[in-house]
Amino acid sequence: MHAVILAGGKGVRLRPYTTALPKPLVPIGDQHAILEIVLRQLSTAGFTTCTIAIGHLGEIIRAYVGDGSQWGLAVDYATEENPLGTMGPLLTLRDRLPETFLVMNGDVLTDLDYADVLRRHRESGAPLTIATYARKVHIDFGVLTTDSSRVVAFTEKPSMDYRVSMGVYGLSRATLEGYTPGLPLGFDELVLDLLKARNQPHAYDFDGYWLDIGRPDDYDRANAEFTSRKSLLLKGA
């Protein structure tokens, strides 16, 4: 099984941590970088090869990870000279990729079963599988519904439930056909194109542990919780 880790972003939301370190290498706990945790998890799940798409401070990532052999992986790299969006780096890799593969952000902290995501993607026959997570959003204001300048409904500080993308995807190489390598391609653009073509992606709903470390509050939470959750996130470590 093959995985592509997207690690080329500048991590603007995590400054000043990311001024000198690429976001996937910011520390979690006392001993581990996020990217190390991800690579350990992929290896434990049965992945054998991995491509890391690097850009901002990418040479630091290359120096840290090397060929991946310390985690039982064969790692290679794709360098992003200019920002290409979430899916854009995959276009330059297309000829090197297997028929189906996992794609994920390099700043995800979760106990998601990556191998099962890819297995379910293959079984679904969908062009894209999106791992999803339930989020509750609290609105700090009274919400009005209006019609022709008349208030027709009112809800005081409601909570709304959504399923959001976890930044982990199963993808088929054929899904990338028709896009031009070297041009930006966002995850949003790809999904909207698939919906427009009535070629719906598959949802992989997950309700375990997940944090998007790109958010400062989640990064602080990850460090606070890591010791108690280490055995969950690094099984056998």
Topology:
Elements: E1 2-7, E2 27-28, E3 32-33, H1 34-44, E4 49-54, H2 58-65, E5 74-79, H3 88-93, E6 100-105, E7 108-110, H4 114-124, E8 128-138, E9 142-147, E10 150-156, E11 159-172, H5 187-196, E12 202-206, E13 210-212, H6 216-233
Parallel strand pairs: 1-4, 1-6, 4-5, 8-12
Antiparallel strand pairs: 2-3, 6-11, 7-13, 8-11, 9-10
Protein name: Nucleoside-diphosphate-sugar pyrophosphorylase
InterPro entries: Mannose-1P_guanyltransferase (IPR050486), NTP_transferase_dom (IPR005835), Nucleotide-diphossugar_trans (IPR029044)
Domain Nucleotidyl transferase: 3-227
What features would you describe in this structure?
The model has no long low-confidence stretch (mean pLDDT 88). Helix content is 27%, strand content 32%. It contains six helices and 13 strands. The protein has a single domain, classed as Spore Coat Polysaccharide Biosynthesis Protein SpsA, Chain A. With 237 residues, the protein is an alpha/beta fold. It has a seven-stranded mixed β-sheet. Strands 2-3 form a two-stranded antiparallel ribbon. It has a two-stranded antiparallel ribbon with strand order 7-13.
The CATH class name reads: Alpha Beta
Low-confidence stretches: none
- Assembly type of the chains comes to single chain
Overall structural domain count:
1
Order of helices and strands: EEEHEHEHEEHEEEEHEEH
Beta-strand percentage range: 25-35%
CA gyration radius, whole angstroms? 19 Å
- Amino-to-carboxy terminus distance: 22 Å
Percent of residues in helices comes to: 25-40%
Q: Report the sheet with the most strands, covering strand number, pairing sense and barrel closure.
A: 7 strands, mixed
CATH architecture: Alpha-Beta Complex
Strand order of the largest sheet: 5-4-1-6-11-8-12
Query: In total, how many beta strands?
Result: 13
Write down the CATH topology: Spore Coat Polysaccharide Biosynthesis Protein SpsA, Chain A
Average of per-residue pLDDT values: 88
- Determine the number of helices (DSSP H or I, runs of at least 4 residues): 6
Which secondary-structure class do the elements indicate? alpha/beta
Form type: globular
CATH homology-level superfamily: Spore Coat Polysaccharide Biosynthesis Protein SpsA, Chain A
Pfam families: NTP_transferase
Organism: Streptomyces cahuitamycinicus
Protein name: Nucleoside-diphosphate-sugar pyrophosphorylase
